[in-house]
């Protein structure tokens, strides 16, 4: 049979790198790649040298605004680009004891935003109890990052839209594209249809409707080795297509750059796109994004209570450079007096209009 | 020296053309940047026009650049391929419309 000149469509991965015993499941291996190759050869500048040019090295925090808690790496999906290497086979789940420690911090923090992420945070058996308790702290903006399909994954999750509404949770959901093909290629077969259904159910209880206080924002990640386009233009296209095709409403679209770590790094290397992607990130470096990168206003807590500058550093096991390293010893003043740990993946947050869990920053 | 006429890595070096003629190079890049800004046409529409033209002028660098640009803008592969067909249709039409010249000449020379 004649070989097609078109690349074979790769099925979304079924297992995490960890379960596949892929060498990139080791964070040391990832860091070796990020610190070596084209950077060690001097072809591209190290991130620290780049930010030193504008007097931002060492990178220091501004005021803490966002407390981001990762309640576990278990997920019902195995997305190809996932920086968490999440999946059904991941067993790292935050315990109730660690949640108690987090609640103590949530009650006393100066941060205005609490941001729960995963994995699929809803799969943590103590998720609902945690949300109920955390909501009592009266934090201004309480985000849950929901992958949408979880709402349709099992009957026990069907009432999540009502549950979120009851606790005035701000729902932030991934939606890589408004077409089925692009979404399913990145996130797995059937994800698009389930996501559409979940969005309609969120709309039905009031989420995302014009003028509604029930916030529903979408996250767009490029489905491949390219950077996100203009956030406002993408939002306009998403709104038009989702409204016309499915009658779906949402508030804002956050365009997030894929960082070259974990499964996305594996994809970049396997598809021979790694060097071009790093060139693209470095070329798109925007100095004005540096002072607002999310590590300057965020603390990330892992499922086992360790503290990180961001969710990406968490996945690279780069703990905060502070005397306070664990939630049990949490002290906001001490933590704010630290140097942020950086490597070449940080170029992902300073490319173009900048990128954070809240979208662009520049 | 590369032993082929086209090297994908050369695309990254495009900006270097200013090194040998700064004024003209800068004027070109200023113009180029301005052309692709949002205007009466959206940047998205202009990206698709650029992709079609890239195929017509058979510029491998431009094809790489505007396929990537289209992906970044969320342009679908169906839209991209239609744009390529629009370019191809004009290009083949340009060939075929010369058929009228051939017919004219044929008729003029024939008894």
From TrEMBL, chain A:
Matches recorded under SUPFAM superfamilies? Radical SAM enzymes
What does the record list as coiled-coil region(s)?
Answer: none
Alphabetically sorted, this entry's keywords are: Iron, Iron-sulfur, Metal-binding, S-adenosyl-L-methionine
List the cofactors: [4Fe-4S] cluster
- Pfam families, alphabetized: DUF3641 (PF12345), Radical_SAM (PF04055)
Q: Which residues form the Radical SAM core domain?
A: 69-207
For this protein, the record's Gene3D superfamilies field holds: Aldolase class I
Q: Does the keyword Iron-sulfur apply?
A: yes
The keyword Iron-sulfur appears for this protein: yes
Residue ranges occupied by any Arsenosugar biosynthesis radical SAM protein ArsS-like C-terminal domain in the UniProt entry: 227-360
Family annotation (CDD domains): Radical_SAM (cd01335)
Protein name from the UniProt record: Radical SAM/Cys-rich domain protein
Provenance organism: Flagellimonas algicola
From TrEMBL, chain B:
SUPFAM superfamilies named among the record's database cross-references: AhpD-like
**Top-rank taxon, per record:** Bacteria
Tell me where in this chain the Carboxymuconolactone decarboxylase-like domain is found: 23-101
Give the matching Pfam families.
CMD (PF02627)
Q: Where are the transmembrane segments?
A: none
Any one GO MF annotation of this record: peroxiredoxin activity
InterPro entries annotated for this entry?
AhpD-like, AhpD_core, AlkhydPrxdase/COmuclacdeCOase, CMD-like
The protein here is known as: 4-carboxymuconolactone decarboxylase
């Amino acid at each position: 049979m004649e070989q097609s000149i078109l690349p074979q469509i790769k099925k979304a991965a079924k297992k995490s790198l960890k379960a596949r015993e892929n060498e990139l499941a080791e964070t040391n291996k990832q860091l070796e790649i990020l610190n070596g190759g084209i950077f060690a050869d001097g072809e591209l500048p190290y991130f620290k040298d780049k930010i030193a040019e504008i007097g931002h090295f060492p990178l220091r925090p501004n005021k803490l605004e966002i407390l981001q808690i990762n309640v576990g790496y278990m997920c019902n999906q195995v997305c190809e680009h996932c920086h968490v290497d999440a999946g059904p086979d991941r067993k790292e789940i935050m315990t109730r004891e660690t949640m108690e420690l987090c609640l103590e911090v949530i009650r006393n923090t100066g941060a205005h935003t609490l941001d729960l992420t995963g994995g699929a945070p809803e799969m943590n058996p103590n998720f609902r109890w945690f949300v109920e308790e955390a909501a009592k702290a009266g934090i201004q903006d309480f985000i849950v990052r929901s992958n949408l399909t979880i709402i349709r994954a099992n009957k026990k999750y069907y009432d999540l839209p009502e549950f979120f509404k009851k606790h005035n949770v701000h729902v932030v959901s991934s939606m890589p594209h408004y077409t089925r093909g692009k979404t399913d290629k990145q996130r797995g077969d059937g994800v698009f249809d389930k996501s559409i259904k979940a969005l309609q159910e969120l709309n039905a209880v009031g989420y995302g409707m014009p003028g509604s206080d029930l916030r529903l924002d979408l996250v767009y990640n490029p489905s491949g080795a390219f950077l996100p386009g203009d956030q406002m233009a993408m939002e306009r296209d998403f709104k038009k297509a989702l409204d016309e095709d499915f009658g779906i409403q949402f508030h804002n679209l956050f365009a997030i750059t894929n960082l070259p770590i974990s499964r996305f790094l594996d994809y970049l290397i396997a598809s021979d796109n790694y060097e071009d992607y790093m060139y693209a990130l470095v070329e798109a470096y925007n100095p004005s994004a540096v002072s607002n990168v999310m590590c300057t206003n965020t603390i990330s807590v892992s499922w086992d209570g360790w503290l990180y500058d961001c969710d990406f550093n968490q996945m690279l096991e780069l703990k905060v450079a502070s005397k306070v390293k664990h939630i049990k010893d949490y002290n906001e003043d001490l933590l704010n007096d630290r140097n942020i740990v950086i490597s070449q993946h940080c170029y992902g947050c300073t490319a173009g209009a900048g990128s954070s869990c809240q979208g662009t920053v520049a | 020296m590369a032993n082929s006429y086209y090297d994908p890595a050369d695309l990254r070096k495009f900006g270097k053309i200013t090194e040998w003629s700064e004024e003209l190079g800068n004027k070109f890049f200023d113009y180029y940047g301005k052309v692709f800004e949002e205007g009466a046409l959206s940047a998205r529409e202009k990206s698709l026009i650029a992709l079609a033209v890239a195929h017509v002028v058979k510029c491998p660098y431009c094809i790489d650049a505007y396929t990537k640009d289209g992906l970044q803008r969320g342009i679908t592969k169906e839209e991209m391929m239609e744009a390529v067909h629009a370019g191809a249709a004009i290009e083949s039409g340009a060939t075929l419309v010369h058929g009228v010249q051939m017919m004219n000449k044929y008729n003029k020379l024939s008894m």
